Amino acid sequence: MEKKTLRLLLWADCNRNCPKCCNNDHAIEQLPTYQGDYSEFEMVILTGGEPMLYPQKVLEIIREIRQTSEAKIIMYTALYKFELMDILGELDGITFTLHDSESFIDWLLFTDSGNPVLREKTLRVNVFPADVHGWEKLGLVPLGWKIKEMEWIDNCPLPQNEVFMKYKF
């Protein structure tokens, strides 16, 4: 099967230390690097570590991808910073991952931003309910968000149509 999705690790830096993080299961330093023509992919998933630690660099990478590809670009994050609103305009979607109560609060701040651009994007939130207490008491989920309850899995297998590489600086 041809790989149509590129899961692109931007950097391993993260503001959390999740004990069952998928990055602990992969030899990050041994991942092949990728940079250049992204036209062979239908989707590029930006991930980390935590992409939002370096929002300006994320914006530059998105614009670089857009120069060679019409692929959908989705970013995984668990950190809200004001710059995320600028980045959101360049993305096709966002997956906000709730790892703990702090990331839950960040997601609430993000969804409460009132940014009309949110209505135009693919919006997903992955929740690790064993680690994020109280999220289910939220009641109404903000319009447009699809929620997926997650569990930590050993070895974090990739979907068959994905290739996992790291960004080449």
Features of this protein?
about 170 residues; alpha/beta; 8 strands
Describe the structure.
By secondary structure, the chain is α/β, with parallel strands linked by helices. It is 18% helix and 24% strand. It contains three helices and eight strands. The chain has helices spanning 55-68, 84-88, 101-111, and strands at 5-9, 33-34, 43-47, 72-77, 93-98, 122-127, 145-149, 162-167. Strands 2-8-1-3-4-5-6-7 form an eight-stranded parallel sheet, with helices on one face. The protein is globular and about 45 Å long. The two termini are 29 Å apart. The model has no long low-confidence stretch (mean pLDDT 87).
Q: Termini separation (Å)? A: 29 Å
Helix content class: 10-25%
Question: What about the largest sheet?
Answer: 8 strands, parallel
- What form results from the Cα inertia axes? globular
In terms of structural class, how would the helical and strand content be classed? alpha/beta
The low-pLDDT segments are none
How is the secondary structure organized here?
Layout: E1 5-9, E2 33-34, E3 43-47, H1 55-68, E4 72-77, H2 84-88, E5 93-98, H3 101-111, E6 122-127, E7 145-149, E8 162-167
Parallel strand pairs: 1-3, 1-8, 2-8, 3-4, 4-5, 5-6, 6-7
